[in-house]
Specification:
CATH topology of the largest domain: Rossmann fold
CATH class of the largest domain: Alpha Beta
Number of domains: 2
Number of helices: 13
Helix content: 25-40%
Distance between the termini: 6 Å
Largest sheet: 10 strands, mixed
Length: 417
């Protein structure tokens, strides 16, 4: 079976960087592995500038092989055949509703992106799928916990897939950022891998034999678990799940033939990579240092506070938040990086500069290192890629090391097909 990949919501190429162990030498991209990324789609709505796509094309070339248009407008049968579908898609509302004609429709403007993935599954039937999302996907929406993920799992079931998932905190496995994301690995029931895993019970899959246990070990502790049925015997279709389903998903689980088994698991932690190990040890530009007149504002933003606020109905309440380290500790991994990184706000990292001892924000290269991209990956010629956008791109990205480890294992699975 060929190692071909289609990358949806490609960003600046995090999946490709991880799967092919990409490095940047004298501004030339070196891809060590041989996954063939036959097609990628990246499109930023509501803006003329397409900085992420520009970066993807400048680094990987072949613009004719990739798409810079709304995925909803792309005919799915025109996407090349592929063995593996990957993507880190935004967390949205996936609910469905019946149209006047009784058919299935999407409720509101949100949720479009999951259904575009579903259309690819239907049209192309890739043997394997690897997706990444924020961990709150397992709990959304607040009014009907677990419904959105239940809809996704039932959709996979309807198209002939089994699914394993795990919430992974990158810092617990030796990577330089405390970033929790849910990874979803689906495999078609026609594959040899399915036949292999069909012989393994759910508990052994989660704790020992599954893709995540093999690559991100967990402690052999029986914490909590739950079971659910989303098969056709229980729910007629995905619309009924949207209307009625609610379930507490834990941070690991398996969906097989419509039967869900979910476990609360705990990481078997590895060596730690600290923020201090990756920050620049040379002199950095003065523009990153905190100005004295803004120092008090930074201290206020990072400090604990309890503020009285008023709800729209006039009711009073208190907004409270705890103290953050200021500056950030260098002997632990970085905190989760957001798209607002480097701006004057509570979530931005502030470090003590190694050379001068003064306080400063992160450089773009340090932001790239936190996500494990090659240094200066987003430093491209495109006018759309401003320095502010470089931080934004990294806040939106995934930890490359996590998908690199998964890619190595999926390569073995594919080679065994």
């Amino acid at each position: 079976m060929e190692k071909t990949v289609v990358e949806l919501f490609a960003g600046v190429g995090g999946f490709r960087c991880g799967f092919n162990n990409v490095s940047l030498v004298d501004n030339e991209v070196i891809e060590e592995d041989n996954w063939d990324f036959v097609w990628a789609n990246q499109w930023e709505p509501s803006t003329k500038s397409q900085a992420a796509y520009d970066c993807y094309v400048e680094r990987f070339g072949n613009p004719g092989e990739h798409s810079n248009e709304d995925i909803a407008t792309v005919p799915k049968n025109e996407i090349p055949d592929h063995t593996l579908l990957v993507g880190g898609f935004p967390c949205q509302d996936y609910s469905v509703a019946r149209s006047l004609s009784g058919g299935k429709g999407i409720e509101g403007k949100k949720g479009v992106l999951w259904w575009e993935i579903a259309k690819v599954l239907e049209a192309k039937q890739p043997p394997f799928v690897l997706l990444e999302n924020v961990d709150r996907l397992l709990r959304s929406p607040a009014s009907q916990r677990g419904r959105d993920f239940g809809i996704m799992l039932r959709t996979f079931m309807d198209y002939g897939y089994s699914v394993e998932w795990r919430v992974i905190n990158a810092a617990e496995y030796g990577f330089p950022q405390k970033r929790r994301r849910v990874f979803i690995f689906a495999y078609h029931n026609s594959t040899k891998y399915y036949l292999q895993m069909n012989k393994v019970n759910a508990e052994n899959t989660i704790y020992n034999e599954g893709i995540f246990a093999k690559n991100f070990p967990i402690k052999d502790l029986e914490l909590e678990k739950g079971k659910s049925d989303i098969s056709s015997k229980k729910f007629e279709d995905v619309v009924e799940i949207s209307d009625n389903y609610e379930f507490h998903f834990f941070n690991a689980g398996l969906m097989h033939k419509g039967l869900i088994t979910t476990y609360k698991v705990e990481a078997n932690c590895e060596d730690v990579t600290t923020l201090g190990e990756i920050i620049e040890k040379e002199k950095v530009d003065n523009k990153y240092f905190l100005l004295d007149e803004k120092l008090e504002k930074w201290k206020y933003l990072k400090g604990s506070k309890r503020i009285e606020r008023t709800r729209p109905n006039g009711e009073k309440y208190f907004f409270a938040e705890g103290n953050l380290s200021f500056p950030d500790k260098l002997d632990v991994p970085a905190r989760t990086m957001l798209t607002s990184e480097s701006t004057t706000n509570r979530s931005s990292h502030v470090v003590q500069d190694v050379v001068s001892g003064e306080l400063r924000t992160l450089t773009p290269v340090e932001a790239e290192r936190i996500q494990m991209f090659p240094d200066n990956w987003t430093n491209i010629e495109s006018k759309a890629m401003t320095e502010r956008r470089r931080y934004f791109m990294m806040g939106n990205a995934l930890v490359v090391g996590v998908v690199s480890r998964l890619g190595d294992y999926i390569k073995e699975i594919v080679e065994n097909e």
